Amino acid sequence: MEKKQVNSGMEYWKKIIILLCSGWVTIWIYRSALSPVFPQINESLGGNISDAALGSISSFYFLGYVIMQIPAGYLVDKIGKKRVLIPGFILFALAALLISQAANISMIYVGSFLAGIGCGSFYGSAYSLTSQNIPADKRSFSTAIVNSGSAVGSGFGLILSSFIVVQMKMPWQTMMYISAALTVCMLIAFALIIRSNKDDVAFIEREEAKAKAAVSTEESKPTISPAKLFAPKMLFTYVLYFATCYAYYMTVTWLPNFLGTERGFEGVAIGFSASLVAFASIPGALFFSRLADKYMNKKIQFIVVLELLAAAMLLITVQATNQVFLLIALILYGFLGKLAVEPIIISWLGENAPKVGVGTTLGVFNFFGMMSSVIAPSLTGKISDMTGSKEMGFYISVVLLVVGTVLFLLSNMKQAKKA
C-alpha cells in the first residue's frame, strides 16, 4: 500500500489546480503590465498619442478575448482542451512579441487584439477541466485557488512593470518579453500535464451513458441545444455574471482616478488604496468557497448574499466622505465581490449545465461577463465627460448587481427552497 502511494505521485486534479492558477498568473501579468507604462509607450511612439488612444490598447485586448469565448467553448467540447489551449497560447506569445516590436499604436492594437484571442482559449478549457476533474466537494474551493492567480498576476504585473520600467528605466518592451517567456513555460506545462483528447471523449461518453439511463435518447445527444443553453436559470446566471464583471472592471479601471480626483487621495496612497480590492479578494474567495463546499446545497444563497453585500459596499464607497470608511468599504468589496463569488457561481454552473456542453456553456457565460469589460470602462468615461464625476458609474454598477441578483434568485427559487 505504501509503495503504491509513493509511485502514484500528485493526483491529477491537484496538478490541474496548480496549472490553471499559473495560467491566470501569466495572463494577468500581461493584462496589467502595460497600463502603468502608458507614458513610456507614448514617448517611444513620438509623444503625441492621446490618453483615449492609449486606453484603447486594453479595449482591443478585451474585444479579442470576448470574441473568442463562444468559439473556444465550442471547440473545447468538440476537439478537447489541449488542442484549444496550446494553439491559443502560441498566438498569445507571438502577440506579446509583436507588441514589443511595434513601431506605431496601430501595431500595438493588432497585437493586443491577437493576445485577446489567444487568451480567450483559456477560460472554457480551464473551467471544463475543473468541472470534469475536481471532486464536487472540493470544487468551489479549488476554483477559488485557480481564480486567485488573477489577483496574484495582476499584483505582480503592476509591481514588475513599475519597478522594471519606471524605476529601473528599462524599455517598456521588457514586460512583453517577460510575458512571452512565461507563456512559453505555460505551453510546456500544458503539453506535459493535460491529458489527451481521448480522456475528454471518454468523459463525454460516460456522461452520455448516465444520461441515457435517466432520460430519453433525445436529451442525451452530445450537442447542447439553444433551449438548454438559454434556459431561464442559465440566461439569468449569464446576466448576473455580466453585472458582477461590470462592477469589477468599472472599479479596477476607474477607482484610482476616482480616488485621486474626487476623494482627495494623493501619490502612493492612490495605488495602495486601489490595490486593496485585489488583495482582499484572495482570502474572501478562499473563505467563502470553502463554506460553499461544506454546504453544497446552499450555493444559491451564498451567491445572492455575496452579490447584495458587494453592491452595498460599492454604494458606501461612492457615498463615503470619510476616507477611513471608504477604505473599509473597498476592502469589504474585495472580500465579498467578484473574485469571492465567481468560484461559487462557476461551481454551481458546472453542476447545472448539461454535462456534454460544459465548455460551450462556460464560453457563453464568460462571453456575457467579459462583454462588461468592453462596455464598463468606456461608458463610465463618457459619463465622467458629461457630468464631471464618475459617481454615476458606481451607481449604475450597484443597480446592475441588485437587478441581476434578483433575477438569478427568481429563476432558481424552487431550487433555493429545496435547499
Automatic annotation (TrEMBL):
Membrane topology (UniProt): Multi-pass membrane protein
Organism: Candidatus Enterococcus willemsii
Ranges annotated as spanning the membrane: 12-33, 53-72, 84-102, 108-129, 141-168, 174-194, 235-255, 267-288, 300-318, 324-349, 356-380, 392-410
InterPro entries for the chain: MFS (IPR011701), MFS_dom (IPR020846), MFS_Na/Anion_cotransporter (IPR050382), MFS_trans_sf (IPR036259), Sugar_transporter_CS (IPR005829)
Location(s) in or outside the cell: Cell membrane
Domain Major facilitator superfamily (MFS) profile residues, every copy: 16-416
The keyword Membrane is assigned to this record: yes
Coiled-coil boundaries: none
Annotated keywords: Membrane, Transmembrane, Transmembrane helix, Transport
Protein name listed in UniProt: MFS transporter
Pfam family membership, one: MFS_1
